[in-house]
């Protein structure tokens, strides 16, 4: 009684939960149950199977954790008595953290098991027979096969983000994990959508379930989301514009590839932003450190792949920026759902290029309404001109030499496709691939790839690749077949030698080192 008086009463009191749990709820700052919690907690307390269809960020963890914890407190036994499966390490870690908060005043023990880290500590924790195990299917199955994890005492099985587990190919593993479980148990399945494979799993798993359907393909009403048309090469400047706006306190920037996430995070750090990247190539400690730094605001920009698109709950994320559009329309609502959580407002913008129109149409069909378009001054339209400070595209590894990668060669082949800048592959300008102008690849005109005439492509020496022979590699006459360093080329100076096609020949510069010795034929 004293406990109930010392804590603040909340809307969760009406569920009749154990007093130790209500203390945890109050300590966590929960005031009133959210819709998914109101619907599922009573059915869970009755021991019924539950099928909950709801988007991430709607309070599903507490919806299944509170009835699960309450049932475990009724009678203490050795575990594991509850198994919670999640598709990713990040989500498993977050579920475990929330369960620890809610159960902090109880004697219940819990451990997490997932890949990417040493199995040694996990094995040690399992030997203590914790009541709750939270993990990912792959590591759970490994421990099960090694007879380290025993599931014959499990009373409650929870599958969170079941559709995402299907997307990741985990359903066969889940069926193997279900095989040794007791037949009489409670099953709680939560999913943001219900593809036919997940529906079949639900039919096999659940017995007369209590169904709660709150999932909506449309984004939450608390999210102001829009598309911004931009040229691919203008994305970096547009991103910088958004991140430096006054409204942007913290942001998650989504990219399509691991390489781009890593490189973009490095670029933002070099420009003075407090940014960190997270993607699948990082070890689990590195991923944990990155997420911890973002949650504690050591970093206010998180650059990530879809690895954090589901289930990751970080409060007060003001912006979600889709630097690349998601790979599927379904991933759109999951990505932008990282903002506008817990009834707070958020902003989501997606950078769209001309190549993304098919994705836009498919996504608008899925959510059932057009996605608003927004214009940003200086970035209007897909064909908008690049600002003067345009950066190189992210997917290039070329260095930033002023004239490409020509190594100071007057007519070298630059790798920077700069359309008319000095040294680039310009059309009709000095140094470009023009026809009949100085430096061009023409045939028989000055600067072309002709046989035995001046101006062929050279390596920092006027006259081209001649290796110091008077008439280059031409055979006595312009265009002749090369011969071995004789006065008139490699053909021994005999007139009428067979012409070669496109041979690079020209006189060597007088300033160059003459590496050859004339020999008398």
Explain this structure:
There is one protein chain. The protein has 521 residues and is of the alpha/beta class. It has four domains: 212 residues, Rossmann fold (3-Layer(aba) Sandwich); 152 residues, Rossmann fold, CATH 3.40.50; 36 residues, no CATH class; 80 residues, no CATH class. The protein has 15 helices and 14 strands. The strands form two sheets. It has a seven-stranded parallel β-sheet with strand order 3-4-2-5-6-1-7, sandwiched between helices. Strands 10-11-9-12-13-8-14 form a seven-stranded parallel β-sheet, sandwiched between helices. The N terminus and C terminus are likely disordered.
Uncertain residue ranges: 1-5, 382-521
Shape: globular
Question: What is the helix fraction of residues, given as a range?
Answer: 25-40%
The domain count comes to 4
């Amino acid at each position: 009684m004293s406990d109930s008086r010392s804590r603040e009463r909340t809307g969760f009191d009406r569920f009749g939960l154990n007093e130790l749990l209500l203390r945890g709820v109050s300590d966590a700052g929960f005031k009133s149950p959210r819709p998914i919690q109101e619907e599922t907690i009573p059915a869970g307390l009755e021991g019924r199977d539950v099928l909950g269809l709801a988007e991430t960020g709607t309070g599903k963890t507490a919806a299944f954790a509170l009835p699960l914890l309450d049932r475990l407190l009724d009678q203490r036994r050795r575990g594991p008595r509850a198994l919670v499966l999640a598709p990713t390490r990040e989500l498993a870690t977050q579920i475990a953290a929330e369960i620890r908060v809610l159960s902090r005043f109880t004697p219940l023990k819990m451990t997490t098991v997932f890949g990417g880290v040493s199995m040694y500590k996990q094995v040690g924790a399992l030997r203590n027979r914790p009541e709750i195990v939270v993990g990912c299917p792959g590591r759970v199955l490994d421990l099960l096969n090694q007879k380290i994890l025993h599931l014959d005492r499990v009373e409650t099985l929870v599958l969170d983000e079941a559709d995402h587990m299907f997307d990741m190919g985990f359903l066969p593993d889940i069926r193997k994990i279900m095989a040794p479980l007791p037949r009489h148990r409670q099953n709680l399945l939560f999913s943001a959508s219900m593809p036919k494979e997940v529906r079949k799993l639900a039919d096999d798993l659940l017995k007369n379930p209590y169904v709660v359907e709150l999932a909506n393909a449309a984004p939450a009403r608390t999210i102001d989301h829009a598309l911004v048309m931009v040229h691919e090469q203008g994305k970096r400047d547009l991103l910088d514009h958004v991140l430096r706006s006054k409204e942007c306190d913290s942001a998650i920037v989504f990219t399509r590839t691991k390489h781009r996430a890593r490189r973009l995070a490095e670029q933002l750090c070099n420009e003075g932003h407090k940014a960190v990247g997270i993607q699948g190539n990082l070890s689990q400690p590195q991923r944990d450190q990155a997420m911890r730094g973002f949650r504690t605001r050591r970093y206010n920009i998180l650059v990530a792949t879809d690895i954090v698109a589901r289930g990751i709950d970080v409060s007060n994320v003001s912006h979600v920026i889709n630097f690349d559009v998601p790979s599927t329309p379904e991933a759109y609502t999951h990505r932008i759902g990282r903002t506008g959580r817990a009834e707070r407002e958020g902003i989501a913008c997606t950078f769209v290029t001309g190549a993304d129109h098919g994705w836009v149409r498919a996504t608008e069909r899925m959510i059932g309404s057009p996605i608003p378009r927004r214009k940003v001054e200086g970035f209007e339209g897909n064909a908008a001109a690049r600002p003067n400070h345009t950066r190189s595209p992210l997917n290039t590894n070329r260095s930033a030499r002023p004239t490409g990668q020509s190594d100071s060669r007057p007519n070298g082949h630059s790798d920077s496709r700069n359309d008319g800048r000095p040294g680039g592959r310009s059309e009709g300008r000095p140094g470009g691939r023009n026809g009949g102008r100085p430096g061009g690849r023409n045939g028989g005109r000055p600067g072309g790839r002709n046989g035995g005439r001046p101006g062929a492509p050279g390596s920092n020496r006027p006259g081209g690749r001649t290796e110091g022979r008077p008439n280059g590699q031409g055979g006595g006459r312009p265009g002749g077949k090369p011969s071995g360093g004789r006065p008139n080329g490699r053909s021994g100076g005999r007139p009428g030698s067979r012409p070669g096609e496109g041979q690079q020949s020209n006189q060597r510069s007088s300033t160059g080192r003459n590496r050859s010795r004339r020999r008398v034929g």
